[in-house]
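Example (one chain per record):
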Amino acid sequence: MSFRLSSGTLDSLAGVMAPPKAYRLGSGGGKGKPSKAGGTVLGIALASAFAKGPQSSGGARPSRQAKHAFGGDSHAAVSRRAIAAMDRTARRVPEVMVRATGRQHGGGHVLANFTYITRLGRGEDKQVALYTSDGDVLHDGRDMQILAQDWQEWEMGSDDRRKGATSISMILSMPAGTDPHGLRDAALDFAREEFANRSWVAALHQDRDHPHVHLTIARRDHDGRRFHPTRDDFYRYRQRFAEKLRGRGIEANATAARARGIAPKHEPIAARKVREKGRVPHLDVGRRERAARLREAGIVDPVDAVLRQRQDAVRQAYERSIAELSASPDPRDREVAVSLGRFAAALPAPEANSVRAPREQREGLAWGNEQNRGRGDSHEAPVDPVAAALTKLRKSNLTARQRIDDPAALSPPLKERTGLPGSSQNLRDLIEQSGAAAQAHRRAMDDISKQADERERAKRKRDRLRDKEGPER
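Predicted structure:
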């Protein structure tokens, strides 16, 4: 008889390694709409009217949360998968990343997504193949345009006024050093199984330090049902993608951040893009204001107590697992217990985001990169020409200001051309010239800033048009 963890230990591990199960009908798998509350209550009443069958002789069954975290099956199978997950976590096996990166509205937006992920128009040496759910490999822009139009027509149906998204894009990534072709094959296999009833495209990128696959899925499946991925769906996506990688000999794990002693940083992509444009996101402003209020009031951040309590629960779950694994007759289980013990002892002290963000900024670390380094939890964004021009103008404006404030900063060739290096009149002329150049730069910068603001307002307006359910067809 194989070794099995107790039901209580499995439940405590499930609470650490997986998000709480949200028991809702309807998900990213394309299931139907949730049933009415009255029907659910009636079903519970009918089920309670019948006697339950006898329990299996193998002992208590795994709970729904344990099956959600480690997969459903017998108690022994769930225990084996839980032990394997602890072993991978203790050995710090690379974590997979599956994350939604955006939604596309309309055929033109979908085509722009195809163009970006394939690097179309950037030269044959940079363009990558676009793999489709039909088994085709696209390289021509005309074929991509036809596919994008097909998706849009299928999403709209006969409702020309529909404002919902046409597709949803994701990124599947692993840290640097991962075999890119193995990752691509695992991602394609994952998409074929998970989105078997949907149209999708995928493209492999190797131009960053970590290989990753961009996956774009049509929002309406072949039966007409729309795509509503939830937190549970993304947890399942990570688990299945990691399984596909391990099936190809690539070590991969998919556990919650708290199981690895990492507090989630809650860093949205929008905040990173705002920083790239040279602005301060509202997220950073709110963190600074909150930290200042707590300091002025002399109050200890209440988040610290929550983080300590959460990490204590993680340690207790690991200690309980170590005690049971140490008593296992299998030497491999006892090795896992020793490795897990060293891992639990090395868990870092919890730190609130309001404290960690300023510290990392003072230390010169890009906020969010420390957690993502080695895990692939990042993705590249297309270069915004407006933001690039704005940054360039700011640098040139700074140079002009330095020249005005520091006449000695003038280049020697320019002084030599004046003929009077020490003349105050010549210096005033040069200052006036620099001031005129600075004013021109400021006017141009104001124009670019207005364009950037208009783009931001247009984006916010589009974001407000969220996926509203269209009329029944």
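Caption: The radius of gyration is 28 Å.
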